[in-house]
Amino acid sequence: MDILKSGNHTVRIDQGELVGYSYGKFELIHQKGQRGWGHSDTEMFPIIGPTADTAYRVQVPKGNAIQDQHGLLRELDYEQVSVTENSASYRKSYTAGTVVKNSKYPDRSPMQYLIWPYSFEFTKTFELTYKGLTVSFEIKGEADMPYMLGYHPAFNLITENPRIEAGEHEITLGEVMQAGSRALEIPNACELVLQDQCRITVKTNGFDNFMLWTEVPNMLCIEPVTYYPNTKSQQFLHEGFDYLSREGKLYTVHIIPQ
Questions:
Q1: Got the DSSP string for 96-157?
Q2: Which of 7, 54, 164, 256 is close enough to 130 for a disulfide, judged by CB 3.0 to 4.6 Å?
Q3: TM segments (predicted)?
Q4: Using one digit for the tens of pLDDT, what is the confidence trace for 91-139?
Q5: Cα(first)–Cα(last) distance of the chain, in Å?
Q6: Residue 212 φ/ψ, nearest 5 degrees
């Protein structure tokens, strides 16, 4: 377990997963074992959304891509790169064509193995200051590699009526739960505010949209995404790809409690 501290902020990281963020007396992150989800954060890459409708095949310019929901990155292990008092960095690497076991098989998926025809390196970095936590994602790999990226943190809810503010719009937890497994789309947004046990602002750079998801009243996933996959038939999932430049790409998420 890696622990970062700054002022009254304390962050706990377990093998690259954000498992705790204490701000004063408040725990901001959903805890494993509580109702709702068996994780506290994860990444969706190189695919966001379900692929069952396309028989788990994804159309890409190069080779064969077999992907389960939200991609294969979550099946890889992070390697620790560096840790200081206020920062920690972790990396996952993938070689094109490597067969990866699908942890959802056989109970939740018929696909035993996943594969992607591009090599990439994915670095996740946490930086904690007296203002809040910045989580950054650096993607390096083959030029013109298609990809989608989503960050999937789960926030702990305490009050009965939390509010989500998206610009001038206010969203209730009931609306999020009503959206079900598709998740509620918040398009063209780079900042949301969760008003619950305290006020948490989530700001992003590089992401252009959010998804909101939960099935329980004690947890809310606020997910910055490059593409919302549920507006069209999954036959057109490939239309949501960005393409990697030779220089790579950097995305950031700022979590600011007050």
A1: TT--EE-TTTTTT-S--EEB-SS-EEEEEEEEE-SS-EEEEEEEEESTT-EE--EE--EEE-
A2: 7
A3: none
A4: 999 999 999 999 989 998 899 999 999 999 999 999 999 999 999 999 9
A5: 26
A6: -120, 130
